[in-house]
Amino acid sequence: MEMELLRTNLSKVRIPEPTNRIYKQECCISFDTPKSEGGLFVDMNTFLAFGKDYVGWNFEKTGNPVYLHIKQTKKPIPEDRPLKKPTLLAIGIDGGFDNQELEYDETYNIVILPDYVTFPFPSVALPEKVFLCFYFMVLHLSFLCSFLIWEIFSSRLVQSIQRLILVSAQVRLAVDAILIAEGAERKEQVASWTADKKQTSEYALTLKQIDNGVIIPPSGWKCAKCDKTDNLWLNLTDGMILCGRKLWDGSGGNNHAIDHYNETRYPLAVKLGTITSDLEGADVFSYPEDESVTDPLLAEHLAFFGIDFSSLQKTEMTTAEKELDQNTNFDWNRIQESGQEVEPLVGPGYTGLVNLGNSCYLAATMQVVFSTHSFCSRTKLANGLLSGKYSVPAVQKDDVANAADSSQDAKQEGVRPRMFKADALEFFLHLIDQVERVNAGKPELDPGRSFKFGIEERLQCPSGKVAYNKRHDYILSLSIPLEKATNKKELEEFHKLKAREEAEGKEMSSDEIVRPRVPLSDCLNIFSAPEEVPGFYSTALNAKTTAIKTAGLTSFPDYLVLHMRKFVMEAGWVPKKLDVYIDVDDIIDISHMRSKGLQPGEELLPEGGPGGQEESEKLLPNEDIVSQLASMGFNHLHCQKAAINTSNAGVEEAMNWLLSHMDDPEAESNEVDPSKVATLVSFGFEEEIARKALKASGGDIEKATDWIFNPTASGPSDMDATSSSGPTVDATLPDGDGKYRLFGLVSHIGTSTQCGHYVAHVYKEGRWVIFNDDKVGISKNPPKDMAYLYFYERIRN
Questions:
Q1: pLDDT at site 83
Q2: What are the UniProt keywords, alphabetically (predicted)?
Q3: Which of 228, 348, 522, 525 has CA 20 to 30 A from 267's CA?
Q4: Last residue of some domain: 316, 347, 372?
Q5: How far lies 564's CA from each of 186, 574, 641, 657, 747, in Å?
Q6: Domain CATH code at residue 635
Q7: Stated pTM of the model
Q8: Quick one: 255 and 176 in the same domain?
């Protein structure tokens, strides 16, 4: 009976081709997964996945009745499961931080709607083998029987067997192809959060070494140009031993190794103290490539200077190990509140987001954003986070005793934000921009509008005349004036102690480190403080000159997001993170930052000039700034935009602007990629709908699929800066008093922009809550002074 029902619907079963995208890890409409109570149903015609609540809807919409049902059930946790110590700066891979992932058994069924007729797989393939054997037996008998007997006995039987074999084979091939294929969701995710793998240096194979009689002893090394005895690097060309780079806080070396490279251009150096019999662990640095590399001929290069690596012991940490050590010490423990009993929270508003490898920044930001009133009632993610449906413990009460550590108690099944994975590495601005796009022409429905505000810059040239430039933004990006630190005496004493201990070859513990403390009020004040703008074209003087710029806000948003510029430029134009505390108040007043616009007695700069009206209205980008940024790999047009939006203030300012506006939209073509249209058509959608969806979603297939199920208007963003004169009020922007209360933090753990982990803290129902991916619990000590993003809500009278 079941096989006959399956046979009648065989035309709706497709065997996926290599080009088909197969969704089998998360429902397209909700956040149901195979781990959910109802499991996941994969449409065997379109290969889209649906949870139990939506599979019937899909059947009514498409008429596709045959589904592969996937269900995962949790395996018990072994009582002796050890807690592993990390050896790599990574999460979720061997050697990385152990996030205590649970293990699951997986079962499959073929389900036919609308009556949910169910039979298991792979036993559905059993008839195929039986009938094949029987079929070939009948064929064999046909050669032994008379033609008449064969005609009478076997004709209809063989036809029935052939039909059953066809049904069984097609279903089996389709299911096998679905199970074997890598899920479309998985293809979009990075499997782990880790620093980039070291590449083989192009200079290693052709390195020329100078025979100058240098023999390197097995110990007792010292910098050839100073008294440093640690952080020493051996140049593999001439055998010089020199100290490493000086860091922004005074630690590290005295730059003698990099200075030597700048003088000689000898490219490779190896860190002494990291060389052992395992040469793969040695820390080799390439100066022209400006990164740690692999030297496949390192044994030969060391032997050239008499070094027997097999007898050496490790005495120094590699660059990666130092970063790992810093991550596992103070920042990691403080921000994640490790070592403290975290009371787990579940239910509506307390749903975690599972880390997909490098989606922690997305998770941390989304938890804060979806704690605002304007986002609570919007989008699939809002339902997933706030409904409480997915906020259930991953470890049941009976299993808690078996967990390897107490932090496991706070872990949930949570939501896996796969449909947002294309944006997982993108910043808060990208989310706001996408929300604004789908609500184009309907500002009253745009929840992102509650973050939007106006910025007005006043530029005064030496003629005394002024110009006003206005733009819209969603974050207030603040520089951190380290010179305003309130603990300068403690810092001075710390650096003296550090220098003494380094001279004695001692390592400082993390709790001995003293970090600068800068008040948030000073960061806000520096935003509005006057600054010089070189290269400003004055239409009054008909020449480029230096102008004075001040800035203020033309409106105060419902929610104010403060972005702390902790990533700055160091030697070699490498973005690094400032190790600094920001002293923040729970309540702030920014009323003094409101822009006043054109004042009585001020005279605007005239229009016109050598470049015409367009040149006078636009600030031209400083080409020195643009070329330096472009040499670092940034898009040339982005570099020009960064220079203009920072009024040519300098490379560091433009770099900070780029880092916080990584996702401003490009001008998009109206053309649609035919291959993407074909992909959507292969899902079962009509070509006209596929084209419309791709145009509305900027050519992104996942977003186009979501658009088809939830069609909304889409249009361009108005993120670009606008220029005008006078204090024009934008009535479309929210506005009100300048008093705000802190309600959210997003903190970053790590020492560079290339790796790290993000954690959110949100003030909910009179208490602080920590959202560390899928771990949610009551926060006892929120790291208010360590955040990267601060979220404030306007206090309403």
A1: 55
A2: Hydrolase, Membrane, Metal-binding, Protease, Repeat, Thiol protease, Transmembrane, Transmembrane helix, Ubl conjugation pathway, Zinc, Zinc-finger
A3: 228
A4: 316
A5: 33, 18, 21, 12, 10
A6: 1.10.8.10
A7: 0.53
A8: no
Nearest CA among 306, 381, 364 for reference residue 758: 364
CA proximity to 638, closest of 740, 720, 755 = 720
The H or E element that residue 502 is part of is helix 488-503
pLDDT higher at 791 or 276: 791
The answer to whether 27 is a known catalytic residue is: no
Residues 574 and 628 in one domain: no
* Structural contact between residues 352 and 386, judged by C-beta atoms closer than 8 angstroms: no
Q: For residue 594, give both structure tokens.
A: 């409101």
Task: Check if the beta carbon of residue 136 is closer than 8 Å to that of residue 165.
Answer: no
Question: Are residue 35 and residue 72 in the same domain, yes or no?
Answer: yes
Question: Quick check: helix, strand or coil at residue 278?
Answer: coil
Does the annotation place 301 within a ligand binding site? no
| Statement to judge: residues 353 and 434 lie in one domain | yes
Cβ neighbors of 475 (< 8 A, separation 6 or more) are: 428, 429, 451, 561, 562, 563, 660, 789
Please give the structure tokens belonging to residue 365: 């930001």
Last-in-domain residue among 254, 285, 316? 316
Q: What is the pLDDT of residue 89?
A: 46
The domain that holds 448 is classified in CATH as 3.90.70.10
What pLDDT score was predicted for residue 192?
36
For residues 395 and 409, the answer to whether their CB atoms sit within 8 Å is yes
Residue 94 identity (one-letter amino acid): D
* Residues 6 or more apart whose Cβ sits within 8 Å of residue 598: 466, 468, 604, 725, 726, 727
> Range with the lowest mean pLDDT among 190-199, 305-314, 630-639?
190-199
Tokens for 263, please give them. Answer: 């003088």
Residue numbers of the domain that contains 678: 674-709
Q: What is the CATH number of the domain that holds 251?
A: 3.30.40.10
- Does the annotation mark 523 as catalytic? no
Asked whether residue 727 is domain-assigned, the answer is no
Structure tokens at 582: 């920001």
- Residue 605 in tokens: 């700069």
Q: Is 755 annotated as a binding residue?
A: no
**5: enclosing H helix or E strand:** helix 2-8
What token pair was written down for 275?
């060389």
Tell whether the model's pLDDT for residue 257 goes beyond 60: yes
Residue 52 binned pLDDT confidence (cut-offs 50, 70, 90): very high
Would 169 be classed as within a structural domain?
yes
721 assigned to some structural domain:
no
- How many domains, the chain? 5
In terms of domains, do 39 and 114 share one? Answer: yes
| 133 in a known ligand binding site | no
Strands 199-200 and 291-294: parallel
Q: What is the pLDDT of residue 488?
A: 92
**Letter string b/e over residues 36-58, b meaning 16 or more CB atoms within 10 A of that residue's CB:** bebbbbbbbbbbbbbbbebbeeb
432 and 334, same domain (yes or no): yes
User: Does pLDDT of 635 surpass 90?
Assistant: no
Q: Is residue 499 part of a domain?
A: yes
Do 274 and 415 belong together in one domain? no
Q: Which amino acid is at 280?
A: E
Instruction: Mention every residue, 6+ apart, whose C-beta is less than 8 A from residue 149.
Output: none
The pLDDT of residue 559 is: 95
* Catalytically annotated residue among 28, 69, 301, 360: 360
Was 461 annotated as part of a binding site? no
Question: Which of 260, 301, 757, 761 is flagged as catalytic?
Answer: 757
